[in-house]
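Subject: for your reference before the review

Hello V.,

The reviewers asked for a structural picture of the protein, and I figured it would be easier to keep everything in one thread rather than splitting it across files. Below is the amino acid sequence we used in the manuscript, unchanged from the supplementary table.
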Amino acid sequence: MITRHDGIAIAIVHNKNPARNNYIFPHLDQLADALAHTCPVTRLEAWAQPDVRPHGTRMALIRDAIYAQLQREWARYCLHDVKSSWRAIRVFIKNSRQKYLPAGDQAKRWMRNSHIETIVTDKHIRLWQQFLDTDKLYLLVFEDDAVFKDNSVQGVLSLEARLVSQAPSRPVYIDLAGGCALPDLAIDTLLAEQDEHFRRYRKPVTNTACVYMLNRATVELFVTHLVRQPWLRLLSIDWLMNKLFMLSDLRDDQALCLHADPSIFQHGSTTGHYVTWQA
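And here is what came back from the structure prediction:
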C-alpha cells in the first residue's frame, strides 16, 4: 500500500450544481473512508468561478488557431502523418471564414463554450497548486459528472496497491473514467502493453479529464511549464495536459501512463447520466 507519509488527495471540480453534488460527494466520502484504512487522505475542491460571458470573436479565433496547431503537434507526438503547413493554413482560413463571417449559431455556441473551457481549466490548475501545498504523493481528481460503478472503490484500492512500487520521482498519469472511445483517440501507436485492467502507453496521453490520477512529480512538471508559458491556460483541460506532456518529452519508462480498460468510473456526460455543458 502507499506508505503512511505519502497519501492521496481526493479533489473535486464542481460549480455547486445541487443534483450532481448530492450524488458525487457521498460517494467521495465512501472512497475517502476506504482509502483512509491504508494511507492518509486529504480532500480538496475548486468551485468558485466568474459568470459565464462568451468570449469575443478575437479570443475564440485565437483559441481555434491554437487548437489547429496542437492537432499537428499531436499527430507528430502520436507518430501519425502530418498534413503540409500550407494545406493546414488554407483549411483553417476556409473554416474560419465559414464560421465567423458572419458569426452564426456554431460560432456563438463556440464562443460560450470557449469561455467555459477556460473556467474549467482554471479550476484544475488551482487544484494542482493546492495539492502542491499538501504533503501527499498522489492527486485523484474528479469532475462533477463522474459516475461511480459498483466496483469503483475496490478498483481504486487495487490501483493503490499497484502503485506501491513506483519511484516517487517517476511521473505518473492514470486515466480512470475514459469518455472518448479509445479507438477514436488514435493512440494505439503508443500502446506498449495491455492486461485485464489497464492499457499502458509508451508516452503519456490523456482521454478526458473526468477522473484522473497524477503523482507529485507530474504536477510539479505541469506547474513548471505553466509558469514559463502562461498562455497554456487558454487550453481546455484535456488538451492542456496533452500539451504539457508533449513539452515534457517523456518517453518509454520515463513515465507511467495507464488508462483503465474497462474504466473504473463512468464519464456521466458521455454515458447519458448528465447533459454536457457543451450541448
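For the response letter, the relevant points are probably these. The radius of gyration is 19 Å. The chain has one domain: 8-50+113-267.

Happy to draft the paragraph if you're swamped.

O.
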